[in-house]
Specification:
The protein has 19 helices and two strands. The protein has 467 residues and is an all-alpha fold. InterPro entries: AA/rel_permease1 (IPR002293), AminoAcid_Transporter (IPR050598).
């Protein structure tokens, strides 16, 4: 009785919550160890954290301009498609589905499970099978919620964003109090050059950028944003500045209380911090951290389902995934598609190996998307974007991304080679299935299966376009 399409339900507050909720998650609670391990010293690790924040701001500003120039949802995928063409956009989609997104979701899910169980097993480490079981339960809960309601997913994200900021405050305040009292012994000889290994720095940046990742999330839901021309730049700038300040103070607090060796030895840095600084909150902070991870999982599922939705609409993914549930108005098939791959990666994966594995592909394509902004400006000088950044911002961001990707082959050749292989494996798929037309028999079988699944899931094609 009414048109079936994705409603504009994301206001400025919800956009801000989506960004904060996606950035402040597992990263700040697990990445400090990875950044310190690969940067070598306390001082250089803080420099890496600030540089990652500045780089994230550059990238976020580029994506804010792309979001005002290109009015479709889909994030990286649609920006690469509209600026660089169908082949690189399909390679991104291929890598995103088989490597980037499931590995990222698995990392966040494992962090959720680890922190959720930490209070019950302290001072011992939680058993790995139990961590993986709880991780999967948390992921399935978020999957169910996103299949059920867009409104409730957005409301949950807003509530969890407040919890995330509270968790950061509980770490920052005691650390700043101790620092004000003169506890600076862990910052002595902070810039020890002997411990700096240059070829490991890209991995330090990957760990830091993982913690900041999420500044691009509004670009995935552009068609569902209220007043996107105004709200995208505003939400991006305020949220990234908030997170940079919060992350720098959080890391200073970690080092004030724990020191270099304790951070490197800790499997869960935030829990070790609370054990040392606030024993009375030993059971509270891990729960807050796990809820932060829960919010990041929610934001990730919410946005990636829109990438599959748009890719299907553009003809580069099966048409079933551009369909919407007739009553819930959610992209149900796109939401459910990640279920098997994330399950497999949680069962077999390790947090730090997974992080390096998906970071290569992610930053390669983000660099290509901002390169696309430069190309789009050159091709369409007549377009007057309501938000425009200086040219040196996309140029410098693109160069840094691609340079870091190239350097990472020296830092972790095994995981990076696997990520590269996943990307390259998309070439034959593109030319056999997308570029060439399927035979009539294959088409008939394909559409028959789509029809049966459509009936089973109660989904239909979007009736009107909102862009």
């Amino acid at each position: 009785e009414e048109p079936i399409f994705l409603r504009k339900k994301i206001t400025l507050l919800r956009a801000f919550s989506l960004l904060i909720g996606s950035m402040v998650g597992s990263g700040i609670f697990i990445s400090p160890k990875g950044v310190l391990q690969n940067s070598g010293s306390v001082g250089f690790s803080l420099v890496v954290w600030f540089a990652c924040g500045l780089l994230s701001m550059f990238g976020a500003l580029c994506y804010a301009e792309l979001g005002t120039r290109i009015t479709k949802s889909g994030g990286h995928y649609i920006y690469i498609l509209e600026t660089l063409g169908p082949l690189p956009s399909f390679l991104f989609l291929w890598a995103e589905f088989f490597a980037i997104r499931p590995a990222n979701s698995a990392v966040v899910s494992l962090a959720f499970g680890r922190y959720m169980l930490e209070p019950f097993f302290a001072p011992c480490a939680a058993p790995v099978p139990a961590v993986k079981l709880v991780s999967l339960l948390g992921y399935y809960m978020v999957l169910t919620l996103n299949s059920w309601s867009v409104t409730w997913s957005a409301r949950l994200q807003t509530a969890l964003s407040i919890i995330k900021l509270l968790a950061l405050a509980l770490i920052i305040v005691p650390g700043m109090m101790l620092l004000a009292q003169g506890h600076t012994e862990h910052f002595q000889d902070a810039f020890d050059r002997q411990s700096l290994v240059w070829d490991k720095l890209p991995l330090a940046f990957y760990a830091g950028m993982f913690a900041y990742s999420g500044w691009f999330q509004t670009s995935f839901v552009r068609e569902e944003l209220v007043r996107p021309e105004r709200n995208i730049p505003l939400a991006v700038i305020v949220s990234v500045i908030t997170v940079i300040v919060g992350y720098m103070l959080t890391n200073v607090s970690y080092y004030t209380v724990l020191g270099r060796e304790d951070v490197l030895a800790s499997p869960a840095v935030a829990v070790s911090f609370v054990q040392r600084a606030f024993k009375s909150l030993i059971s509270v902070v891990p729960v807050l951290v796990s809820l932060s991870c829960f919010g990041t999982m929610n934001g990730g599922i919410f946005t990636f389902s829109r990438t599959l939705f748009v890719a299907s609409r553009e003809g580069q993914w099966p048409p079933l995934f551009s369909m919407i549930h007739i009553r819930r108005h959610t992209p149900l098939p796109a939401v459910m598609l990640m279920f098997p791959l994330v399950t497999a990666m949680v069962c077999i994966g390790d947090i730090y190996h997974l992080m390096n594995f998906f970071s290569f592909s992610r930053w390669l394509f983000i660099g290509l998307a901002t390169l696309g902004l430069i190309v789009h400006r050159h091709r369409h000088p007549e377009l007057r974007s309501p938000f425009k950044v200086p040219l040196f911002v996309p140029v410098s961001f693109t160069i840094i991304c691609l340079f870091t990707v190239a350097m990472s082959f020296y830092s972790d050749p095994m995981n990076i080679s696997i990520g590269c292989t996943v990307v390259l494996s998309g070439f034959p798929v593109y030319y056999l299935i997308i570029h060439r037309q399927m035979t009539n028999r294959c088409c008939n079988l394909f559409y028959y299966l789509t029809y049966k699944l459509q009936l089973l899931l109660e989904v239909v094609q979007q009736e009107i376009k909102t862009y």
